[in-house]
Amino acid sequence: MSFSSYFTHKSGGDRIFAVEAPKIKFGRDSLLEIGDDAKVLGMTRVAVFTDQRVGQMEHVAKVVESLKSQGLDAVVYDQVAVEPTDVSFKSGAEFAQDGKFDGFVSVGGGSVMDTCKASNLYSCYPADFLDYVNAPIGKAIPVPGELKPHIACPTTFGTASECTGIAIFDLLEMESKTGIVSPRIRPNLGVLDPSVLSSLPPLVRAANGFDVFSHACESITARPYTHRPAPESSQKRPLSQGANPYSDLACLEAIKLIGTHIEQAVNDPVEESYDALMFAGMLAGIGFGNAGCHLPHGMSYAVAGLVKDYAPEGWPTDHSMVPHGISVIVNSPAVFRKTGPACAERHWKAAAAMGADLTDTKVEDGGDILADQILGMMRETGIPNGLSGVGYSMDDLDALTDRSYAQKRLIDNGPMPISRDELKEMFRDAMSYW
Ligand SMILES: NC(=O)c1ccc[n+]([C@@H]2O[C@H](COP(=O)([O-])OP(=O)(O)OC[C@H]3O[C@@H](n4cnc5c(N)ncnc54)[C@H](O)[C@@H]3O)[C@@H](O)[C@H]2O)c1
Ligand SMILES: [Fe+2]
């Protein structure tokens, strides 16, 4: 690829990137068309996945009504765990198998959409739980065939799970998050209705906004696809291909939208804020769905998995958790300071898109400028002050490092090789920022 030196081919690297574009509908009242969409996909008996809080809201009622208006049978499963685990994935799969459904609709955040993907998978192709889970934790056996149709309706805007072939969960025995990755678990259709966001609590909006931002920023600063070893065959090219010109486009625009709207969207939202956030989430999803995330997400799985007693406002209080967007963004400034020199211009461009004042700055300081910009926005939107703000101390550095060093897929997708010691150093730097 000659138009950007970042994509200059490295010996043994891939020369090809593939674009998997999700099928999407975007706009207010798009939820009212679900019945029609489900019918077109051949559904007659539909499992509607949600969690207990969203299940009480009008969003699920609208979807069920729309399905019924088309003569479809709809059964609601509202037992999805927020921040799901292997145990809650298995419960969803049992429900899916017992109910003899021919289609799935998920209405909720990433927790709900991911649980629905996994439930569809294990009910179609029962297997030992770790069979489809990412290596080295699981066996990463390819999904054997097509799943039943799934329409995903996000009620948050951060995860873009409606766009991706990824399902994330907490593997309880390992106290760490991991996932299942396959193009076959990508929903057949994502339906994004921004009006659903008005009921999100402010800190959930902030956490989602930073999840979007980090998806986009990690994709732009990921290892170029031309440096990833060429696959043995086209079928073995991974979903996380590394930075590429297509994902760059979507991600820069997503960062701009988040930079422009996040503070207002958290502190004093107007209708336009929700449209912008949801569109940004979708764009970043298209970007990271093809490029892949790297260190902030790889580190986040340990931060979420080893949680102590942190229980933030806006999430269910029945158990401690470091919600996804928070577990990611507390690492990001430390990571971008470290990765800055590997592709300074990309960090600098991301900071510019986010609205940083670049007067009298140097491109080679891109990593630090980006980190400072993120920190300013974290403070404006009530995000905790690094790892110490979510309950960790220096005594936890080894445990955090070991858990995340196992996230090989994500660590390898960073712009530079990272040793265990360097990873530990980043966790140390992320402990407290201000
Ligand atoms: N599959 C992927 O590609 C991917 C990417 C990033 C994150 N994830 C995963 O997604 C999960 C996090 O998802 P999330 O951030 O979307 O949040 P979530 O689904 O965990 O929901 C967070 C809270 O917000 C509530 N909620 C959801 N929509 C609401 C609404 N419209 N109004 C009021 N409350 C609402 C939920 O009931 C819950 O209490 C994590 O498990 C994370 O690991 C998946
Ligand atoms: Fe994420």
TrEMBL record:
First-level EC class: oxidoreductase
SUPFAM superfamilies reported for this sequence: Dehydroquinate synthase-like (SSF56796)
Stretches assigned to the Fe-containing alcohol dehydrogenase-like C-terminal domain: 240-431
Classification via Gene3D superfamilies: 3.40.50.1970, Dehydroquinate synthase-like - alpha domain
Residues annotated as domain Alcohol dehydrogenase iron-type/glycerol dehydrogenase GldA: 22-194
EC number from the UniProt entry: 1.1.99.24
Protein keywords: Oxidoreductase, Transit peptide
Reaction catalysis annotation: (S)-3-hydroxybutanoate + 2-oxoglutarate = (R)-2-hydroxyglutarate + acetoacetate; 4-hydroxybutanoate + 2-oxoglutarate = (R)-2-hydroxyglutarate + succinate semialdehyde
An annotated Gene Ontology molecular function: hydroxyacid-oxoacid transhydrogenase activity
Family assignment from sequence similarity: Belongs to the iron-containing alcohol dehydrogenase family. Hydroxyacid-oxoacid transhydrogenase subfamily.
Name the record gives this protein: hydroxyacid-oxoacid transhydrogenase
